[in-house]
């Protein structure tokens, strides 16, 4: 069974990491049937089972089965797509709120199941041809509304039927090396479009049929009980997350504490939580059952306990919203329970293999999620650690050894998924796992059933004590170890090494495994040679962020925009990218000017990566000047005053035989809205290849710069000014630079229409090859001698769900 499960996993992974779906994907069911027949023959035939080569056809058939099944399912899901002709149009959708609405600061987000649409094509009885069944919808206060109504939103509850004026777009996320793939996240959840509400919606029905709608209404009621009982409690969000799986009220500061101590998994309802509930209820049922002989005569206590545990697990998973992690945990538990009910003596590894096959059958996109690898990896390590010991260790030594084994074995996976791991994790988990498992979570569930103020208060008090201890632990400088994203071959080698290390003492090769693991930690991405540089124009949406790297130095030009009221490009994109590239600290951060789409992510980058020197255009606060409390609110500002050294023409420096020169502005006026005073930077390799960065410099400044520099302004690559707006890219500037490559950093279907068609045509007349971050993703530039090579991340790292 292990061989079959491994083959299916390989097949599914190959499909999910493919650039496109095979042409026969719609007929994948035929290959599924053929593969099942081959596997069945290999498993049943005595001759085949005894043959030495029997494992090969079985493995190959399992691989084809996994690949064909995943392709077939993906073909169906990709067919449920938004018609490009409807993208960005005003639509009037009728449907049902199909999730627990999430609070997003100045708005809400929810899943909307579409029933009818006014823009659907003719001849469709359902009224939604060209519109996906499930859409992730945002409703922001003030958008499309005026007057007093713009300041508030109507109460939106699960299961209600609404008619909403909306605009939709196809799934689209940042395509950046080492950064979370939002499009894959949407695909796994069956959300084939995103959109936002424009104006006022009309409530049609307060309740609709459907058992999941009733579940979501119950979850909303439970959340309201916690909000009413703990209105101002700082850790209410953690308790709500443990009760109904809604993590929206957990603050960024609390997430950082959980991340640095390696216990963030405890606030996501998954395998550990659901298994503990099942074990507690099942064990209690067995205890009671055995004391009632007339029940034992009708049904063995073990089977009754398994049934009761499964019912409790299903109830808790439903209360958590039956999300992807809860579904995965429920399937794993169901397989184990069925093996028990079937009264078959099945080895633990076969149970794990069956669970793996069940999860992949239900959710072939599971390998795209970090939780899949962490949950199955942890269980596999537990089995590997506890089985096969001549003299098993018991008591507290067993618990400590198991925790250390899991921590060690997860290191390569955590580095691959998150570019780091918590060194404080063993201590944090030793404290938090017992508290959450045996105190906080049981109190939360009791409060759900018996909503007494004492239970809410006690659960919050214990959580506050736990978080205080975790905060103290997180403040150690070595609490979190960060490591660049390793190549696949090194990741697989390190995984094999840690598995070898957790085997019993005396296993040959453990010394070699230590050497391999040492090499894994010492590995660092190759940097440019002296005289050359690399640059990455990051896909940050409607904004700009460019990373320039030489042999020993790193510079960041702009830091991207804010994303709503709670996060920004620095936190979501720039800092994770820099960690993946192995950049521990920036030598210089240069902010071209004070617009929020260029400086919005600066503070997040400063907090997570660190900056040695700041250069800034626009409104500059001189380094060392005291801040003015309450002078501005970063999240709501369109302009961001930057603390640093003024960036003016004449600044020059050389790093590793690569020249950096600030060409403009001649001086800073201190005025706000200072596009015309954007800091212009030119980076020149020793061989002559160069990159020109102009921020939002407008045509007047471009013409002046072209007049000053003349033919010296010619560059190999240019990042077009102001995202391709008509206010920039003047004919004189385009003619003076005359590049081989021109890059437009703009957001997908942005409201400004950047880059403008006239500007695209103007640059096309120079024969420069155009790149756009909204369609190409991050643009990677690298010099070698006198030449510059360019790659688009969506081209070098294609996936079948990348449609743009």
Tell me what you see in this structure:
- This protein is of the alpha/beta class.
- A nine-stranded mixed sheet has the order 17-18-16-15-12-11-10-26-27.
- The protein is built from 27 helices and 27 strands.
Structure in a nutshell:
By secondary structure, this protein is of the alpha/beta class. Helices cover 44% and strands 16% of the residues. It starts with a helix and ends in an 8-residue tail after the last helix.
Write the layout of secondary structure elements.
Elements: H1 2-16, H2 28-44, H3 46-50, H4 55-79, E1 91-97, E2 102-103, E3 107-117, E4 134-140, E5 161-169, H5 182-188, E6 194-197, E7 202-205, H6 211-229, H7 236-244, H8 252-260, H9 271-289, H10 293-298, H11 301-319, H12 324-341, H13 348-362, H14 370-386, H15 396-418, E8 420-422, H16 425-449, H17 453-474, E9 480-482, H18 488-501, H19 510-522, E10 534-537, E11 546-549, E12 554-557, E13 562-563, E14 567-568, H20 569-580, E15 586-591, H21 596-599, H22 602-608, E16 611-616, E17 620-622, E18 642-646, E19 652-655, E20 658-664, E21 680-684, E22 690-693, H23 699-709, E23 717-719, H24 731-737, E24 741-744, H25 757-764, E25 769-772, H26 773-776, E26 779-784, E27 787-792, H27 793-796
Parallel strand pairs: 4-6, 12-15, 15-16, 16-18, 17-18, 22-23, 23-24, 24-25
Antiparallel strand pairs: 1-3, 1-5, 2-3, 3-4, 5-6, 5-7, 8-9, 10-11, 10-26, 11-12, 13-14, 19-20, 20-21, 21-22, 26-27
């Amino acid at each position: 069974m292990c061989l079959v499960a491994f083959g299916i996993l390989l097949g599914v992974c190959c499909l999910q990491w493919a650039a496109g779906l095979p042409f026969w994907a719609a007929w994948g069911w035929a290959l599924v049937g053929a593969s099942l027949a081959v596997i069945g023959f290999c498993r049943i035939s005595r001759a085949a089972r005894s043959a030495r080569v029997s494992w090969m056809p079985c493995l190959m058939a399992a691989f084809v089965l996994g690949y064909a099944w995943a392709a077939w399912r993906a073909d169906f899901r990709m067919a449920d797509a938004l018609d490009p002709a409807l993208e960005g149009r005003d639509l009037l959708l009728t449907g049902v709120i199909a999730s627990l609405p999430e609070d997003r600061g100045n708005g809400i987000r929810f899943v909307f199941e579409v029933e009818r649409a006014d823009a659907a094509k003719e001849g469709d009885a359902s009224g939604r041809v060209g519109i996906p069944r499930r859409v992730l919808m945002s409703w922001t206060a003030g958008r499309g509304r005026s007057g007093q109504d713009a300041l508030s939103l109507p109460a939106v509850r699960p299961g209600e039927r609404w008619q909403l004026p909306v605009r939709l777009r196809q799934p689209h996320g940042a395509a950046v090396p080492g950064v979370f793939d939002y499009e894959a996240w949407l695909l796994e959840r069956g959300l084939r479009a995103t959109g936002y509400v424009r104006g006022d919606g009309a409530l049609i029905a307060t309740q609709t049929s459907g058992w999941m709608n009733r579940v979501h209404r119950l979850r909303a009621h439970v959340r309201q009980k916690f909000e009413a009982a703990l209105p101002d409690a700082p850790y209410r969000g953690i308790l709500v997350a443990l009760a109904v799986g809604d993590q929206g009220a957990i603050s960024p500061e609390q997430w950082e504490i959980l991340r640095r101590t390696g216990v963030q998994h405890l606030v996501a309802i998954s395998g550990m939580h659901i298994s503990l509930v099942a074990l507690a209820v099942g064990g209690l049922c067995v205890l009671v059952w055995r004391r009632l002989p007339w029940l034992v005569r009708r049904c063995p206590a073990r089977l009754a306990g398994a049934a009761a545990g499964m019912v409790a697990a299903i109830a808790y998973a439903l209360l958590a919203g039956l999300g992807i992690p809860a579904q995965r945990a429920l399937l794993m538990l169901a397989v184990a329970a069925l093996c028990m009910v079937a009264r078959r003596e099945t080895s633990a590894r076969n149970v794990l293999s069956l669970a793996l096959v069940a999860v992949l059958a239900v959710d072939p996109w599971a390998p795209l999620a970090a939780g899949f690898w962490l949950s199955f990896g942890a269980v596999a390590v537990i089995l590997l650690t506890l089985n096969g010991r001549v003299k098993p260790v018991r008591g507290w030594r067993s618990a400590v050894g198991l925790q250390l084994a899991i921590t060690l074995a997860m290191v390569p996976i955590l580095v691959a998924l998150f570019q780091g791991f918590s060194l404080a994790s063993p201590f944090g988990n030793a404290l938090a796992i017992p508290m959450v498992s045996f105190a906080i979570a049981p109190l939360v569930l009791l409060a759900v059933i018996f909503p007494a103020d004492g239970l809410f208060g006690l659960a919050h008090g214990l959580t506050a004590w736990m978080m205080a201890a975790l905060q103290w632990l997180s403040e150690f400088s070595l609490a979190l170890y960060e490591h660049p994203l390793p190549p696949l071959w090194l990741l697989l080698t390190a995984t094999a090494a840690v598995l070898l290390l957790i085997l019993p003492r005396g296993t040959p090769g453990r010394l070699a495994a230590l050497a391999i693991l040492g090499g894994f930690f010492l590995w660092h991405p190759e940097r440019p040679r002296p005289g050359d540089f690399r640059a990455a124009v990051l896909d940050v949406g409607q904004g700009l962020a460019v990373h320039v790297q030489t042999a020993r130095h790193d510079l960041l030009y702009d830091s991207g925009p804010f994303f709503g009221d709670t996060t920004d490009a620095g936190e979501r994109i720039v800092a994770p990218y820099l960690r993946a590239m192995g950049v521990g600290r920036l030598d210089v951060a240069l902010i071209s000017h004070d617009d929020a789409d260029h400086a919005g992510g600066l503070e997040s980058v400063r907090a997570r990566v660190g900056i040695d020197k700041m250069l800034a255009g626009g409104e500059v606060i001189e380094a060392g000047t005291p801040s003015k409390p309450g002078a501005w609110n970063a999240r709501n500002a369109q302009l961001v005053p930057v603390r640093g050294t003024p960036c003016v023409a004449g600044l020059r420096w050389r790093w590793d035989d690569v020249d950096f020169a600030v060409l403009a502005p001649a001086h800073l006026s201190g005025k706000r809205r200072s596009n015309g005073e954007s800091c212009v930077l030119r980076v020149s390799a020793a061989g002559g290849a160069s990159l020109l960065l102009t921020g939002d410099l407008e045509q007047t400044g471009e013409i002046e710069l072209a007049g000053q520099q003349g033919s010296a302004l010619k560059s190999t690559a240019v990042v077009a000014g102001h995202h391709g707006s008509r206010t920039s890219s003047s004919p004189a500037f385009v003619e003076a630079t005359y590049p081989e490559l021109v890059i437009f950093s703009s957001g997908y279907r942005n409201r400004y229409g950047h880059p403008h068609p006239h500007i695209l045509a103007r640059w096309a007349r120079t024969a420069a090859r155009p790149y756009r971050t909204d369609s190409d993703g991050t643009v990677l530039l690298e010099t070698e001698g006198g030449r510059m090579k360019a790659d688009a991340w969506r081209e070098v790292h294609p996936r079948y769900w990348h449609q743009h």
